[in-house]
Amino acid sequence: MSAVANPTRAAREDTPRSPQAGAPVVRLHDVHKSFGALKVLDGVSLDVGPGEVAAIIGQSGSGKSTALRCINALETIQQGTIHVCGHAIHDPQLDRRALRRDVGIVFQSYNLFPHLTAEQNIMLAPTCVKGMTKAQARELAREVLSHVGLAEKAEHYPEQLSGGQQQRVAIARSLAMRPKLMLFDEVTSALDPQLTGEVLKVMENLAREGMTMILVTHEMAFARKVASKVVYMHRGRVWETGTGAMLDDPQTPELRAFIGNGL
Ligand SMILES: Nc1ncnc2c1ncn2[C@@H]1O[C@H](COP(=O)(O)OP(=O)(O)O)[C@@H](O)[C@H]1O
Ligand SMILES: [Mg+2]
Questions:
Q1: In this protein, which residues make up the domain named ABC transporter (predicted)?
Q2: Ligand 1 atom nearest to CA at 60
Q3: Fewest CB atoms within 10 A around its CB: which of 30, 112, 174, 248?
Q4: Surrounding residues of ion ligand 2, Cβ less than 5 A
């Protein structure tokens, strides 16, 4: 379907997408992580399959961001295993550059370079990391910007864009690397409701196109509607997991209290 809608995509793809339909894109098994004496992940196991959208919810400090950072090898773990797009993250020999090509991550802060236009921000990695020519990278930047509804903002600087638009540029920048997996850590938390809506819309479209995604979010309505798997973390553990319907029928007092406070 996407090949018809976007015929240039297959031609540009320099690594084939995972052919093992059904094999998990992400698998955490009994992951333990401490910062000094503080245990932050206490035996986390989680599978995310191709095209799945997993929403991680939970109180502040429950280990959500740390879990995402471990998945992307931004933190090392003390025990357990993590496999992501065929990479063994726990392996000291991990090829981080190869991992970075497969996994995109977007944070609450957009981290755009203020002295570069939207388009130039997006062109940076394809030219520096993938060795694209400027012309190729510009064409790619235009394509991913139109994908997030910002075709007309290519030559704007970050300060000329709203927070929601800047976040969409940050998402487009990740998409330009053609990731197999996208991680989102509270990407709408700094935005007001209207701008939140436009960013969530972009994420919902990505989900519909089949992108495998793990997102940490406070947006319960979004989790209920878009996520194929909702993961409630509490004290560094996967406390409860299920489909969006789990939010309507929590099985643990902790999730019940969390939802009660959150809505
Ligand atoms: N780099 C770090 N050094 C020390 N403690 C950290 C570090 N990162 C996170 N923590 C602590 O780990 C716990 C979990 O943090 P985090 O994963 O950010 O939670 P969440 O994203 O669910 O709010 C918190 O108590 C936090 O203070
Ligand atoms: Mg966090």
A1: 26-260
A2: 23
A3: 248
A4: 65
